[in-house]
Amino acid sequence: MDIKTLKYFLQICKDGSFSKASKNLYISQQGLSKAIGNLEKELNVPLFNRNSSGNELTKYGQYLQNKAISIVYQFDILDKGIKSMINENKVHLKIGVSFGVLNALSLDIINEFKILYPDIVLNIKEYTDFKCEEAVLNNKVDLGFAISHFDESLFNSRFVKSENLYAIVNKNHHLCNLKEMKFEDLKDEKIIINSNKSKLRHNFLIKCLENKFDPNIYIESDEMILIHDLSKRDEGIGISIDFAHTPTCKIRYIPFKDSTFTWDINMITKKNKIIASNLQAFIDYILEKTKTI
User: Would the pTM of this model clear 0.70, i.e. be above it?
Assistant: First the structure.
């Protein structure tokens, strides 16, 4: 008999059926039935009367239900208390991340840090680009992974990596055979791009203004997959990050001729913030790991 099986048993009592309990427990009905069958064998008594009207508790089942509620409750308190004691000895770092950054960095890097530094707990929260900067300024996070450009008078920053940006063009579009995309090529085109919460859109608008035109922002979406799908349907020309590419025969990814138009990831902290040793360890680890990315 173990706690997990007792919790299975109590869930069946609560739901009144094996099928409903198995769904709430996210296990197969066959697996649940086997676990209860093994419990009945161990106790050498039947816990349920199984009939066409459902599953009714036997007198043994009723007795076990009354005792199991207290046992499970006490165990959960014990488990929570021990975990709390363990966490007292750990340092928590609050990390803000702009949407898309975790995909660009790879979760393997974050997971490896957790293994190397088991006493440092990373509390990671994703934000839109501008909200990530706000979180750093308002001390909601210790460090943010932010997209260039930002106010250098407000933040200390360390460059992490750069991603290429592409114009996503349907193969039936008249611009599809270009080897490189110039901004002036997009002057009269329908543009599909991120919303105004995104630095990508902000930086794109700046480049268009430098080339003396206002782009026709036809569709805005913060869903990269949707931007690709709409470009595939020839609804317009999408602007996308390199790592978001999805293989397809219907669209081409055309790099921009302007090599300065990139999606640059930086680690930022509040200006003049004192960096604790654990946070510095995280910064140094990220910089070392991203040298080869």
Answer: no
Dist. CA 36–CA 21, nearest whole Å: 12
Q: Which residues pair with residue 263 across a beta bridge?
A: 163
Beta bridge partners, 252, equal 169
pLDDT band at 54 (very low <50, low <70, confident <90, very high): low
Contact (Cβ atoms closer than 8 angstroms) between residue 224 and residue 240: yes
108, 138, 95, 103: which is closest to 263 by C-alpha? Answer: 103
163-261 and 3-88 share a CATH fold: no
**CATH, range 3-88:** 1.10.10.10
Mean pLDDT, the chain, integer: 91
95-143 tens-digit pLDDT:
999 998 988 888 889 999 999 998 899 999 999 999 999 999 999 999 9
Tally of CB atoms within 10 A around 81: 10
114, 248 Cβ separation under 8 angstroms: no
For residue 112, give the nearest of 292, 291, 289 by alpha carbon: 289
Helices of type H across the chain: 3-15, 18-25, 29-43, 59-88, 101-105, 107-116, 129-137, 199-210, 224-232, 277-289
Superfamily of domain 163-261: Periplasmic binding protein-like II (3.40.190.10)
220-266 pLDDT, tens digit per residue, is: 988 888 888 899 999 999 998 866 555 566 889 999 999 999 999 99
Pairing label, strands 190-193, 155-170: unpaired
**Dihedral of the CA atoms 21, 27, 33, 35 (nearest 10)?**
-110
The dihedrals phi and psi of 84, each to the nearest 5 degrees, come to -65, -40
Establish whether the linkage from the previous residue to 228 is cis, with ω within 30° of 0.
no
Beta bridge partners of residue 193, listed in sequence order: 220
